[in-house]
Amino acid sequence: MKEQLEAIRKSALESVAGTKAASELEALRVKYLGKKGELTGLLKQMGGLSAEMRPIMGQMANEVRASLEDAIETQSAILERRVMEIRLEKEALDVTIPGKKLRIGHKHPMYSVLDEIKDIFIGMGFEILDGPEVELADYNFTKLNTPDDHPAREWSDTFYLTEDSNVLLRTQTSNMQIRAMETRDLPIRVMSPGRVYRKDEVDATHSPMFHQIEGIVVDKGITMGDLKGTLNAVIRKIYGEHTVTRFRPHHFPFTEPSCEMDIQCHKCGGVGCPTCKGEGWIEVLGAGMVHPKVLRTCGIDPEVYSGFAFGMGLERLALGQYKISDMRLIFENDVRFLEQF
Ligand SMILES: [Zn+2]
After folding, report:
1. Cα 10 to middle of ligand 1, angstroms
2. What DSSP string describes 303-320?
């Protein structure tokens, strides 16, 4: 039995030292020390030994078991270290190689301009509202005093989504005047930017989709003086403190009186040049006093309250700000163009 124990110890230690993977080591542990292992099997035969041999062999068997366990533990540590070394070698990092530059994009030039304008209005106490681009004809036209037979409602001008002409892609952000008056408590100071859609052919100054900025103020005692004062302040923030402005009479169905606002051409100082097409003035927005009919439609008494509204094109502002000559460039998403801003 002593020889058998020695043989097991010798072969087991040799095998353990020769293992190359943790799985092999585990297989050896089972082979020798497991419930059906060789050493365990030998211990079961101890019953047949004489009374004085039993403790001697028992002690020896324990020594063999202990030395095997030690060897397995040591080998396990060695294998672990080797695995780590191999991994470190594979993942070697050369910190002297120049890093890859992350390409981070930036805000679209038009939205930079929009953010500036939003800041101006927020500074004047306006609330910024978002509105639906798919809209009911009621909100886009009817409630804005634009009746069924109005030419702006022609199928040739508007993208209708239903046969009955009740649902459409909004042609103006003015729908937000109605939505603001219907949902807000008075007084109202709202600015609402967004996309609008018209059946226009694409050229340097037209697109079937473009952006407008809408504004409405309703309170007691609002006059044309408030309209002019507010819009002059906004336009001078955008174009510069010394910008010269003028208001011309105009017509919109939902304001009365209505006007358009021009700025004196900053290129020629009003003499006339290609930028202002020889006019000396450049149109920047449309505005007016909210029509009493529109106020009444929204449940506001025009005898008590009055208000003004305005709308401007965002593209025109962005084109002017960045001296871009063609509106198509803004929508084409050509990185070579956008990178310049
Ligand atoms: Zn000019």
Report:
1. 103
2. TT-EEEEEEEEHHHHHHH
Dihedral sign for Cα 316, 317, 323, 329, please: negative
Chosen domain end from 39, 55, 90: 90
How high does pLDDT run on average in the chain? 89
Provide the domain limits for residue 29: 2-90
Number of domains the chain contains: 2
Which three-class secondary structure state does DSSP give residue 286?
Answer: strand
**Dist. CA 284 → ligand 1 center (Å):** 14
Give the model confidence (pLDDT) of 199-230 as tens digits: 888 887 788 999 999 999 999 999 999 999 99
Are 264 and 183 in a shared domain? yes
Which residue in 29, 140, 32, 8 sits closest to 79, CA to CA? 29
Q: What's the predicted TM-score (pTM) here? A: 0.68
- For 156-181, what is each residue's pLDDT tens digit? 788 999 988 899 999 999 999 999 99
Residue 270 Cα to ligand 1 midpoint, Å, equals 6
Same domain? 82 vs 164: no
CA–centroid distance, 264 to ligand 1, in Å, is 8
The alpha carbon of 207 and the centre of ligand 1 are apart by a number of angstroms equal to 24
Looking at the structure, do residues 73 and 117 belong to the same domain, yes or no? no
Q: Ligand 1 is a single-atom ion; what residues have CB below 5 A from it?
A: 265, 267-268, 273, 275-276
